[in-house]
Amino acid sequence: MPLLLPNPSSPLPSLLRHRLCSSSSSYAAAVGGFLLRSGHRPDPPQLHAEDSRVVLGCGLVTLDYVATVDAYPRPDDKIRTGELQISGGGNAGNALTAAARLGLNTRVISKVANDETGATVLSELSEAGIDASHVIISDGGNTTFVYIIIDKQTKTRTCILTPGDPPMVPSDLPMSSLSAALQDVSLLYLDAYSPEMELAVAQQGWLAHQMKIPILVDAEQERTKEELEGLLSLASYIVCSGNFPKNWTSIPSLPCALLEILLQYPRAKFVIATLGEKGCMMLQRSDAGDDSVVDAADIEVVADSLKLELHKDDTLPTCISSKTMRLSARGLCAILGRLLIGTAEVIPVSELVDTTGCGDAFIGAVLHALSTEMPPEKMLPFASQVAGIKCRAIGARAGLPWRSDQRLAKYL
């Protein structure tokens, strides 16, 4: 059929509806809109006494229309889709889904409109095990939706995002509701999509009642310095794409740029740059009070040495770390810490399906690793393995609970 993507404001064709939920009755309830029209929200998942701590995410949730095509269309082309799948998406939605599928209790602050797309997004969040009771529902406007075209030939994806309206702002969430959302939270995740709102959440989590909840910030390439500065100044952990450090610091060397980021933001315990099929690089800050460390080295020299030691023939993710030392670079101060390099899983071309949401899945795994006090040497291969599982499925939230996947057995 021609590549004519659905109109999210119109009722969905019955053939597509069936893909969204595990049963026709649950789908009818969601798409019929009663969740929104009646003012009813999904009930938060019941927590067990032994795992009452919660990971709270604030940011973007969407509905994704994922069309797979043999090749990306040229101007004025009419082509056929090989498959069309509809699923929840958005940075916060994807990362929290990954964390929930790995066994964490998750909660989200986001915003949808009082439309059928919003109803579907709420239903999908609830089915994923995410507490969506703090999602804001606007009376008018539209919920964010994304058209994603997956090119089977080049293994690339093109995203066309229609932003939600009205946007999420701090006045949407009264202080009493924000305090309730922060109850029992042990880790806060911010995707920087709504920086003004997320800064308000971060400040409340850091200051109120001396909770000082640790904060992981996903430093998105699309955000401006003005939008990100406040969030990064409060960040305990920073995860970003490989191009972000260079663009943020104007330093072409990735190890030196990571060093500069930790110098700029002294609260941050580590920064991770994801590098796609090349893996990732992490700079971890060590305790400032450790005076026993006397070794010093140029961080670029350390990075080059680690790359030589990597087992590049391994198909499964691996990680190699420097020892703790005083790392410096020309023109930059030194920090006490260590550099880690992780490889990505080697996925055969025949198994590579959709890279949409792989970075979010990586972050979801990092959230799990932090919550379970997993050491970095184990965390980086684990997160890469989770991202690899996502690469093998269509749709950002596709697949069964990842905790049951045998490829993760040695980590969990």
Description:
This protein has 412 residues and is of the alpha/beta class. It contains 13 helices and 18 strands. The strands form three sheets. Strands 1, 4, 6, 10, 11, 12, 13, 14, 15, 16, 17 and 18 form a twelve-stranded mixed β-sheet that branches. The protein has a four-stranded mixed β-sheet with strand order 3-2-8-9. Helix 4 (91-101) crosses helix 12 (358-371) and helix 12 (358-371) runs antiparallel to helix 13 (376-391). Residues 9-42 and 45-50 have low confidence and may be disordered. It holds the Pfam family PfkB. Keywords: Kinase, Transferase. Residues 59-288, 347-402 form the Carbohydrate kinase PfkB domain. It comes from Urochloa decumbens.
Question: Could you provide a short overview of the structure?
Answer:
By secondary structure, the protein is of the alpha/beta class.
Number of helices: 13
Radius of gyration over alpha carbons? 21 Å
Overall SS class: alpha/beta
Q: How far apart are the termini?
A: 43 Å
As a percent range, the share of strand residues is 15-25%
Indicate the mean pLDDT: 83
Count the E strands: 18
- What composes the largest sheet? 12 strands, mixed
The amount of helix comes to 25-40%
Low-confidence regions: 9-42, 45-50
Apparent shape: globular
